[in-house]
Amino acid sequence: MSEQVLDFIRESCDVQYFPDYKKEFPVFLEALKEAEGVLGSGLKFDAALLDQVPKLKIICNTSVGYDNLDIPLLKERGIMATNTPDVLNDTVADTIVALMLSAARRITELDQFVKTGGWSEHGFSQQQFGVDVHHKTLGIIGMGGIGSTLAKRAYFGFDMNIIYHNRSRNEEAETTYNATYCTMDELLEQSDFVCVMTPLTPQTEKMIGKRAFEKMKKTAIFVNAARGKVVDEAALIEALQSNEILAAGLDVFEQEPTDRNNPLLQMPNVVTLPHIGSATAETRTKMAQLGAENVVAGVTGGKLVTSIY
Ligand SMILES: NC(=O)c1ccc[n+]([C@@H]2O[C@H](COP(=O)([O-])OP(=O)(O)OC[C@H]3O[C@@H](n4cnc5c(N)ncnc54)[C@H](O)[C@@H]3O)[C@@H](O)[C@H]2O)c1
Ligand SMILES: O=C(O)[C@H](O)CO
Fold first, then answer.
1. What PANTHER family would the database entry show (predicted)?
2. I need a labelling partner for 266 at 20 to 30 A (CA). Which of 25, 50, 137, 260 fits?
């Protein structure tokens, strides 16, 4: 949270700032007991915690995903909740393109090859060729804000054929990026790149599992920048180990931070990132500012900018 954003909130509210609330949870909890609003990322409130914070009117998530929040419980308690949609679409879509390119062109693997002397010792061989991204078929599961921003880059920047699966048709993506709606099975069977971009919900949890990987092409590259739990990670590991798919680009994992012994971290054909989809200085500032506007509105009785319900 930048001083600028904190100052914006301070114009209307008393602020107590915890750069890492988990490290000083008892002090944070004491502050929370008096709080009318809370702003942060990954905050979790169960019934027992809510019982201790009677003045709380609003929880502002500084992320677009809000699977950390128990929405039915918050509604029942009359507590408002907000997230940060749209301001991060471009940055997250850029990250996904980076994962696609890195996995297809073996960028991180070859970076290590050069830096550890492999190139000078052994030279470059055709076994190290990658595969093209341009003119391939990109399947997007979850054609929302980020999915359609990715479609734009893939269609205009890489001449890709866009197919998608979503809860409902996205007419803008169909007309602007020539995206074709298809069933999940059709998408899995036809895509060269499968990118999942849905929220984590009871319906999407482990949505991509053994059966889905079996449906994919053997040459498919799987990219997940949504939430780790949308994928059955054991099935992903198995699919990579048995060459059911070619490679993967992952920004998110079932457990974060990932366990050092997670087999995905040992695979040269898997590109990993530490959940940094939106992590640029510019975008994180926009997300914090949007959260700040919401928290001020919630505490002072104003109109919320991006209410979840
Ligand atoms: N890696 C990161 O840093 C990062 C950054 C931003 C968002 N995310 C994740 O990405 C998710 C999507 O973000 P967004 O801003 O595009 O959200 P969004 O709400 O704009 O889009 C999500 C899309 O998924 C679709 N969807 C939901 N359930 C579905 C289902 N069962 N089957 C098919 N489609 C379904 C929705 O209809 C919607 O079109 C977030 O909820 C968050 O979990 C991750
Ligand atoms: O949901 C989100 O916004 C990301 O995961 C965190 O930036």
1. 2-HYDROXYACID DEHYDROGENASE-RELATED, GLYOXYLATE_HYDROXYPYRUVATE REDUCTASE B
2. 137
